[in-house]
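Notes for week 9. Today we move from apo structures to complexes. The key idea is that a small molecule is not decoration. When we ask for a structure prediction with adenosine-5'-triphosphate present, the ligand SMILES becomes part of the input, just like the chain. The input block below holds both the sequence and the ligand string. Read it once before you look at the output, and try to guess where the molecule might sit.
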Amino acid sequence: MLNNKKYYEDQYPASLAAKHFVFALIWTFGASLDDQSKPRFNEFLIGLITLDWGMTSGGDNDDNEIDIKKDNQQDGVGGKNKTTSNQTNYKAASQFLTSEAFMQLLVSITFPRGASVFDVIINESNNQWERWASRVPVYKYDPQQPYEEIVVQTQDTVATTTLLNMLIKSHTNILITGTTGTGKTIVVNDFLHIPDIQDKSLFFQINFSAQTSAKGTQEVLEGRLTHRRSNLIGPPVGKQGIVFVDDLNTPTPEIYFAQPPIELLRQCIDQKGIYDRKKLTFIHLTETVFVAACGPPGGGRHEITQRLTRLFHTIGMPQVGTSAMTQIFSAIITGFLTNQKPALPQTVQELAKPLVDATVFLYNKACTTFLPTPSKSHYTFNLRDASSLVSGVLHASPGCYQIPLILVKLWSHEGCRVFRDRLIDDTDRNLFDCVLMGVLNKYYIRPEPDE
Ligand SMILES: Nc1ncnc2c1ncn2[C@@H]1O[C@H](COP(=O)(O)OP(=O)(O)OP(=O)(O)O)[C@@H](O)[C@H]1O
Ligand SMILES: [Mg+2]
C-alpha cells in the first residue's frame, strides 16, 4: 500500500499515515502468526496503541468509530490495571517510540467497535477503517462450474486475496502457510484466475513433492518463462511473471539435509537468477515473483531453511472455523438445491440448512471424538473431509434429489464413506453410528419410518 503514489499526494494527513503504519504492522508482523498467537498480537497491538502516552487524542473519529481506549476501559479490557501492566510490558517499546509526533499519530488510531486488528482494512475512498467482512462478495452458484473449482469467499479469503494483490504489485515474494485443508491452494489459484491478473501476468504452478529435483524445477522455470536474451529470462515484455510453488516444503532432504529445489528457488529470489547447466553462465531472472504455499512440518513436510523463508512476506492462513465453514457449505448446498432445472420439490430445498448444519456438526464431532493416537495416527480430519462429504452428495444422479428421505440417506452414506471408513475397530464404528444418529436427530433430518 505504501508503494502507492496516491498516498503521497499533497493532502496526506498524519492520522492516515498512522493508519497505514498500523495496517502494515498488522499484516507484516501479525499476518505470519498462527491462530493461537493472533489474539495475543491483537491484544498487544491494542495495548500499545492505547497506552497512556500523556497526549490528547488527535483522532479523526467518525460516527462509526469509537475511541478504543474508552471502550476497553468500559468492558474491562485494557482498563486501569491492564494499562499499568501494559506499561511495564511495553516499556522497551515505549522507549523506542518516544518521539512526540509518533505518539500523536498512534493515539489517533481508533478501530471499529468490537473489531480485532485482523478484521479491518483502510477504505481508500473515505480513509476510515472498514471490515473485511463488508467486502465479501455474495456467492453466485454456477451449475457449470466443477465442484473442485468452487471457492466461496469468506473474510479470510478476501483478506488473503487483497494482500496477495497488494504484495504482487509491489514485487514481493509471498509465502502462505497454514495447516492442511485451510484453502491455501484454492485461494491462490482463485486469485491467479481473476481476469485482470490473467491479462497482466504470466503465471504457472509448480507442485513440489518428495521427488522434486532442482534440475526438474529449473527446466520448468526455463521452459515456461521467455528467453529475452541469452542471459535473461522473464515473462513476455509488459507482463509480470508469477510462479506459484505449491507444497514448498515437501522435497526430501538429501544426505546433508539440503533440499536442492529449495536452494534453487532461494538462488532465483536472492540472486535473481540461475546458472545455465551447460555453459555455466549466469542467467538473470527478471520481473518475476514467487508465491509459495506450505503446511507445518510433519507427515512428509519438512523444515525449510530460514535462508529461504526470510525472503518471503509470510501470511498465515487461519483455520476455517465453524461460521466460515457454514458460510461455505450454505452457499454451495443452497445454490445447488435451488438451481436445479426442473426445480426440486420445496421439501427438498428446505433441507439445505439442516444438511449444512449437520455436515458442520458431524465434522466437528468427528474431530473431537476420534483423536489420533500412535495406533490411529490417521484419525485426523480437516475441511477437505467435510468438503468430500458435500461433494459426494452433489455428484449423485439427479433422481436422488427428488425425495427428502433419499437425499438424507445419501448424505448419511457419504458421511460414513468419509468418516466411518477411516475408523479401524468396531468400538469406534459403533460410536460413529451413535454420533450419526445423534446428528440426524438434532437437525430433524432423521427419516420418518413411513416416509
Ligand atoms: N473458501 C472455500 N470455498 C470452497 N471450498 C473451500 C474453501 N476453502 C477450502 N475449501 C475446500 O477445502 C479443500 C482444501 O483446500 P486446499 O486444497 O486449498 O487446502 P490446502 O490449505 O492447500 O491444503 P494442503 O496443505 O493439504 O495442501 C478444497 O478442496 C475445498 O474443497
Ligand atoms: Mg494445498
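Residues 184-185, 246, 293 surround magnesium ion (ligand 2) (CB under 6 Å).
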